[in-house]
Amino acid sequence: MQIDSEQWDLIIEPKNKLFDLKLKEVWRYRDLLFLFVKRDIVSFYKQTILGPIWFFIQPIFTTLVYMFVFGNLAGLSTDGLPQPLFYLAGITSWNYFADCLNKTSTVFRDNSAIFGKVYFPRIVMPLSIVISNLLRFGVQMLLLLVVVGYYLLSGLSISWDFHLLLFPVFVLAMAMQGLGLGMIISSLTTKYRDLVFLLTFGVQLLMYATTVIYPLSSLSGKLYYLVALNPMTFIIEGIRKSLLGVGVFDIYTLTYTLITSIVLFFVGLVIFNKVEKSFVDTI
Amino acid sequence: MPIAIKVEEISKAYQLGEFSSGTLSRDLERWWALYRGREDPFLAVGETNDRSQKGKSDIVWSLKDLNFEIHQGDAVGIIGKNGAGKSTLLKVLSQVTAPTTGKIKVKGRIASLLEVGTGFHPELTGRENIFLNGAILGMRKNEIARKFDEIVDFSGVERYIDTPVKRYSSGMYVRLAFAVAAHLDSEILIVDEVLAVGDAEFQKKCLGKMGDVSKGQGRTVLFVSHNLASVKQLCTKGLVMRNGSLVFNGDSSNAINYYLKEEKNSIVRDLSCLKDRSGNGSVTFKEFYLENEDGDLINTILTGQTIFFCFKIETNVANSKIDLGFSIHSESDESLSVLYSSYQNILFNSFETGTRVVKCKISEFPFVEGAYSIGGRLLNNDIEADWPKDRIGEITVVKGDFYNTGNLGIKGKAQYLIKGEWLSH
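Output (structure tokens, whole complex):
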């Protein structure tokens, strides 16, 4: 390395370092991160009459429809849980993952106007998506809490134990998977738009390969392993286990979840870092 | 002065044409070449960025091997024709896109203003957008809060500050957006022609603010503009770019002169080919061209600049007394001004035949920006010698500092500028 007698605050080079997280820079732009989160939340219900209530309406109605279609018409098992609890926990979790994935995967395209005109650490944008969705997820969890409270009062007993402590771990894993996968797809779509079309129905189909509308315990044989391969499966199962006491969980599923989450996240980060420098030229 | 920005061997290649299914196979080919340690096969065939010529490859170099340094506190104007690479350079400097090769070293925080109102969200109020936009431009929240009143005051939209910006008029929107940008507190400010917004009054305010930033506060400013007058007024240094390369680096006024000299299409007009002309032919026009004070050929001039109208004439008869006249016409062919040398009691005596050059110096060219054409007529011993019916030359005039005050006057209101001496009793 050449010795430079002067101190430079910034060196602009053709390529980023592979694992350069730019944490320092992200920290410097933390106010921007916060403001993006606020913008996402506030602009969501601006000029609506019901305002933040919309956060609840979507999961409530989806749960009702699922109860009718999958619970009553198809008669799928709900692992011994009351249908509203089973579906609501699955739907809010899945929605969090799907929203993170969908919004992150179009982050370059949606923000090309801003990205093309001003620099800030690009990772701030997907991070803000993950965080603002996390807030929405938190609010929707309150709804689940209310429903749980209702069932407790009407005599249902849920056995909470140390699994409850793992709930934040599962949420984090879910965020990392949504973010990681989203960043991979968003990076590839800057050049190849095909993936956008694949994603829109892919996410819908993926839900049926995840244990949102049926429990993993109701499957057997090859199908069991096929669904278990889906990294989101054990997260949804784990969230049900920690909050409602029912679900497939052991140290192996936890390890699988953690490894897939970390791998997806870092692969996403590396690709994102590579693309962010000059995607403006190709988008 | 210490160096604020050091640009080393910066190049930037762009791919022309559409990205299609061809891209995937090409990308694979490139990866394969790079994997084997070969040179990138698609960059190797790159050529300079010349729009007017059809190139062989679909890779062009928007920037090619740029090297320069900018010192702290300099206000640098970057000028060049469309497509010279000015905006690409700003994009690379503001990290919007990465260079293909090379390195830029920067001391201090960079804020770039390639557009006003980046990231404004229509649903949010003016207040919310000030914070959001400020943060996007790199300001901290408490910094914005501290300057909030100043920003609102500068923008003049105080009454609407809690209204969503989607209900703003476009003028209000721009004012608010510029107000945020104008209060950026970075050591280095990069600005791309954003001053071409708002009404004349607001433009003046913006220019004033820019002047404060570069002159008063000792910050480094990089400024791209086609408006040479504002470059001259705001900047101390100038960079001239052509086809992605840096062709001049120096004082802003020298840079402007260099640029004007560059703008040549047909600088010397050969007049022998004009067929439709009247007169006895004892003296004829041969060539017409313009020179600046340094004797450089120019085609584009600034309002207020001193220029020479140069006429090469041929005397075919000995003992001629030549009276040379020329006229300046507007784009709509309106005659704006006529001057014969005889008006000023000047006649050029030629005892022998031959060619000579007659120059007429015009100090402080008074016409505002636009395209003008020149007509010419020669008299010899009071008899018409040569009068081409077609125009003998064209001038492009761009905005200039006529009054030498930086005030450009009111745009579009006047054709012809005069200067007065002001007295009061």
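Chain A has one domain: 31-281.
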